[in-house]
Design brief:
about 100 residues; mainly alpha; 6 helices; about 65% helix
Length: about 100
């Protein structure tokens, strides 16, 4: 996964969106694991800031809608859990 993160950082355009989605789907598989950020760091060497950067990129591109708390903060792990539980939303089927 570290290679894919490096690939995300150097690509542009539509290819960057594809690489980002591939990474997010892979990372979402582990969203129910222990303390999530610590689990990613220990097992894959992936830093929290890299995952958050990818998710913010997808949100800015209009590809992802982040869950938010009452005070407006982004809920990254909750969003990843939702992606794992519901990989294809109804609105995508309708398109």
């Amino acid at each position: 996964m570290k290679k894919e993160i490096k690939r995300f950082k150097i690509t542009k355009g539509d290819e960057r969106v594809k690489v980002a989605w591939k990474l997010i789907r892979e990372i979402a598989k582990f969203s129910r694991s222990g303390p999530f950020w610590k689990f990613l760091e220990e097992n894959f060497g992936i830093k929290e800031k890299d995952v958050k950067e990818i998710m913010r990129f997808l949100e800015e591109a209009g590809e992802l809608e982040m869950h938010r708390s009452i005070d407006g903060k982004r809920l990254y792990v909750s969003t990843l859990k939702d992606i794992k539980d519901n990989p294809i939303k109804l609105d995508r089927w309708l398109k």
